[in-house]
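Handoff note, outgoing to incoming analyst
You'll be picking up this chain. Sequence as last confirmed:
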Amino acid sequence: MSIFHTWKLAGLIAVVLTVVVIVVAEGHPIRIDPAQPDSQQAYTDPSGSFRSSNSASVVDPTVAYGILAASLLLAGTFALIYHRLRRRISTLQETSAAQDAKYAGLRQSEAQYRTLFESTTDAVMLLDQRGFFECNEATLRVFGCKTRDQFIACHPSELSTLTQPDGRDSRTAADERIQQAYREGMAHFRWRHQRLNGNAFPADVMLTRIDLEDRAVLLALVRDITEQKSTEDELLASMQQSRRANAIKTMFLANISHELRTPLHAILSFGSLATRKIDRLSNQELLEYFRLIDEHGQELLALIDDLLDLSTLEASRAEMVFRQVDMTSLLLNVIDECQSETMEKNVNIRLNDSDSTIPLVCDQARVKQVIRNLLHNAVQFSHFGGTVQVVVTSEEDSVVVAVADRGVGIPEDELKTIFDKFVQSSKTRSGAGGTGLGLAICREIILAHGGEIWAENRPEGGAIVSFRLPKKSQFRPTLECDVTTAALTPPLNDVPPGDVATSTVS
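Most recent structure output, in case you need it:
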């Protein structure tokens, strides 16, 4: 309401009050003779008021004006108070509306943050110096808790393994991280958490100091990184394997260059020598030169054959001819082939059971190649006059062959790696070892038959290299195989004796 309207209201109130006062005023009437209607007979009462003969009240003008002035003053005061009250009420209404709008915005913001707090898949919790006091639903799922009270009752270290990967006690480490977050405002670290059922999991933890209701608290964000950690471990293992493969390749190149250079240099030297002295050498001397050239040529050819064999097997392009054979007869045949080598070192090869018949389906030539390589290594690393034992065992669905020597053995940390290509045992690397391709070829052949090969040390000294082949072998191609060709390969489960099944992967 404007000030003009306020004073207008005040004037109206003053007039009304004045009229009311005049009407109710008391005084002595002035009598007028009825017989003389035109005469003005009147008297004055003791109060000074004039009254007519019909007893109508007549007020003194001075008193009336005083009453009017007082009424105006009272009305003005009332109007001023009313106006101020109206302004105050209007101000309060505007302030209340602003506060309502502010609180509505806060409620909306709180609802949004609560939605984010509850809908995130990461565990989010609040904690202070005394421990947890709030968490979202994801926290209960991550740590396997049924209720918030169950979670809040736990100390951070109680939701962790006893020790962290660095060996520190979890409770001590957790208190240090909490103090760091309070001191620096934030702490970001990897942690080994544990669910209530005892299952441990790696987590990424972020602690952030915030102000809540005039006190400093920590907002904790915990993310289960089991899959991420697994991926990181796989990547790290792949990188380590790649480094090891590069180191092996470097070692192989150095080794193979020496192995190729040695026989090739001998062949060229004897050939050049024979050429220059052809007119001065006797037939016997020429024959010796040719023998040496042939010997080193055979060494070079064997090395190249090994390289080609390994390349063919790794590329899954080897032709496998499966037939049913007797493993005992096959072992005896290879042992006979090694007689010349065993005689040089006076090494005796013994087969545990040479009378029993153990049938199985395999590629005879390839399996003989494996046995020949294992026997060659065993004889080569045996002491002069030693013994190599060959044990064949028939199991329900497979055949196991073990070749044991009494040589220098194999270091424990190399029992698996000796089957990698270009790898030699550290105990034989500087001795009579070759290029390190033989066992790698053996592994590829055994794997192609669906079998397995492994090495171990004998308690009394020496090494044992064993392989297992299924009695009903099936050629197992790698992912690089031609699926159509593999599908056309006949089943090998029941190949009659003497029948042949051929499988070529191209």
